Amino acid sequence: MSNAAELARFASDGHSGAVLQVQSVTMTDDQTFIGTTFTDITDGTDALSITITPTSSSSKFLLMMSISASANNGSSRFGFRFMRDSTAVGIGVTAGSRTSVAVQGTGSTSNNIDEALTSVFLDSPATASAITYKVQGHVEQSASTLIINRSSTNADNSTVYRAVSSLTVMEIAG
Questions:
Q1: 3-state helix, strand, coil in the chain (%, to 5)
Q2: pLDDT in tens, 58-69
Q3: In the chain, N or C: fewer CB atoms in 10 Å?
Q4: Is the pTM of this model over 0.85?
């Protein structure tokens, strides 16, 4: 199918569950940031952000993140969440002062990448307007650094690894 009109007709002909479009972005360089506010994940060239226009307002979107992360403080926890425009989606229920995320890890202050985290969520935005999905990260301690795609010590050695992180969005006919 080559255009939006054909996709819309296909979806409206009862093809519920059909994959209508797929977009993916991979971040290959590293990113570091300090602080306890949610921050967009980007290496300055590739952001884990995708803008997609639904074929139909009944479409659902399968969101898949894969994050390689570390923290420079061995006791510091960190988390990631999906955003649909300015709304967090696919996160845990807020309870008290706890921070709601899709997935969480803990730093080790080593030459290892602390966590290879994945999360999958099926979103139902109920719109035919363009949507921007992205991944944001958060580190619990204001003095800690969250590190994407490398270890906290990052020694220049063949036994120390660099990794990638990605976001994939699939439109599913509703």
A1: 5, 45, 50
A2: 999 999 999 999
A3: N
A4: yes
